Amino acid sequence: MIDLIVRNLKNKVSKEEWQTRLDLAACYRLVAHFGWDDLIYTHISARIPDSEHFLINAFGVAFDEVTASNLVKIDIHGNILDGGEFEINPAGFTIHSAIHEVRHDAMCVMHLHTNSTIAVASQKQGLLPLSQYSMFAMATMSYHDYEGLAVNPAEKKRLQDNLASNNHLLLRNHGGLTLGATIGDAFMRMYDLNRACEIQLMLQASGEELVYVEQPIVDNILNQAKIVHTGSTGGQKSWPAMMRKAFRLDPSFAE
């Protein structure tokens, strides 16, 4: 058995960085709890407030092993600034760096390989207006065609152009991606996207005639959501509860 390197950065970084580390580590643990992880692969990155530095998971660390202290600090090019003996997956950061370069409104970028997002991303029509969950995702949805493993720097511009100002992205034959001004926003967008894809696949498997939501309703869903979450976003409303859940599941993420 190979022991995981243990670090303790509490009181050694700024309060803002430590809070970002706590939120991001909790996010990784929640992804593992919901069964959205993929061994040591896929990533969630977060910008440290008032900086051009980012936090991301160490390559080789499972999502349910991520802690606030073993997250790796990097720059926009993926150079390690503070990671102890940890490394990152440079190919994995290609997608994240492309988005962080142009979407300065996004603190967090979440990219996952769930079965349901891969399956729907691989359907020609993509996500369909079949459930309330799909409404939220379709309101700001983009698609990016598969180009193989994300190791080609030239792909970054195409990915940026395809995403544009949207907050949801289905990568064809690959998986799903969400981003948000907070870690909670990115998490809740992924929750909605994954549920939408799961429900679509269940409905398609039923063989029954399907009822599609009309486009004007899809177009108005974000305005309706503002009424429900007056003065905030769904992520801001739900994230405190998700943090409490993460602490109940295993408080070691906060180490």
Count of β-strands: 8
Oligomer: single chain
Helix residue percentage: 40-55%
Task: Tell me, rounded to a whole number, the average pLDDT.
Answer: 91
Shape: globular
Order of adjacent strands in the largest pleated sheet: 4-3-2-1-5-8-7-6
State the major sheet: 8 strands, mixed
Rg calculated over all Cα atoms: 18 Å
Low-confidence stretches: none
> How much β-strand is present in the residues?
5-15%
Measured between the Cα atoms of the first and last residue, the distance is 22 Å
Structural class: alpha+beta
**What is the N-to-C order of secondary-structure elements (H for helix, E for strand)?**
HEEEEHEHHEHEEHHH
What's the helix count? 8
Structure description:
The protein is α+β, with helices and mostly antiparallel strands and 255 residues long. Helix content is 43%, strand content 13%. The protein is built from 8 helices and 8 strands; from the N terminus they run H-E-E-E-E-H-E-H-H-E-H-E-E-H-H-H. Strands 4-3-2-1-5-8-7-6 form an 8-stranded mixed sheet, sandwiched between helices. A hairpin with a 3-residue loop joins strand 7 and strand 8. Helix 1 crosses helix 8 and helix 3 packs across helix 6. The longest helix is centred in the C-terminal third of the chain and has 24 residues. The chain is globular. The two termini are 22 Å apart.
